[in-house]
Amino acid sequence: MPHTRTANKHSALQRSLCCAAAAWALLSAGVAGAGNQQYEPLAASVQAALHEAVSDAASPEPVFASEAEKERWLAAMSARLAKRIPDPDYRLELLKTVHYEATRAGLDPQLVLGLVQVESNFRKYAVSSAGARGFMQVMPFWTKLLGRGDDNLFHLRTNLRYGCTILRHYLDIEKGNLFRALGRYNGSLGRAEYPNLVRAAWERSWSWQAQRLAASEAAPRAN
């Protein structure tokens, strides 16, 4: 009997390790998973956000609590992204655009980086089997439904504008429930695999603790 219990424990441990390894392998490779995304009626504010034309040009400079915090964030995220995107100039442009578009949509930029890792592994021209495109694997039906069929979802800023706005839309539908919002984004509402992959990427690769401003950064000294 003791041998049976020991064997069962080893078997359970092996299954757990195999499942964890498989999930991490999918995460590391990048999973283009938004292909089952379903259209949801859009609020007027969401339609307005997506009706604003954006090009492949660089976004405005992202806003941080201080210039020092901006430099720290960009340096840290750039170092983490270097293996996936060797070009330092393009890497910086991508990070600035992610931060700008995520913040504009009321999202955590680190969450968006985790989602991009899972969806496309930072491949600009990734296409899923269902036709989802780009960094955030946006389905082309969104452009057609909005009467913007000419929008190029392979453009950096266009793709991030759509992806961030759509995720914000799903968060609003789900009253801030990120687990369910990510399920809607992936077209797998109610299943844990995709939300868990995004959260794992977010926490393992892109977590960030903003530093408190020093007194000298927060305000000029009084004379």
Verbal overview:
By secondary structure, the protein is mostly helical. The protein has one domain (44-208): Lysozyme (Orthogonal Bundle). The protein is 58% helix and 0% strand. Helix 3 packs across helix 4 (88-104), helix 5 (109-120) packs across helix 9 and helix 7 crosses helix 8. Residues 3-32 and 213-223 have low confidence and may be disordered.
Task: Describe what is shown at a glance.
The chain has 223 residues and is mainly alpha-helical. The chain has helices at 2-29, 44-51, 67-81, 88-104, 109-120, 141-145, 156-173, 178-186, 193-205, 215-218.
Low-confidence stretches: 3-32, 213-223
CATH architecture: Orthogonal Bundle
Helix content: 55-70%
Shape assignment: globular
For the residues shown, what is the average pLDDT?
80
Structural class: mainly alpha
Please write the CATH class name.
Mainly Alpha
User: Termini, distance in Å?
Assistant: 80 Å
- The helix/strand series, from N terminus to C terminus, equals HHHHHHHHHH
Strand proportion, as a percent range, falls in under 5%
Largest sheet: none
How many helical elements? 10
CATH topology term: Lysozyme
Tell how many strands the DSSP assignment holds.
0
Into how many domains do the coordinates divide? 1
Instruction: Please give the radius of gyration in angstroms.
Output: 20 Å
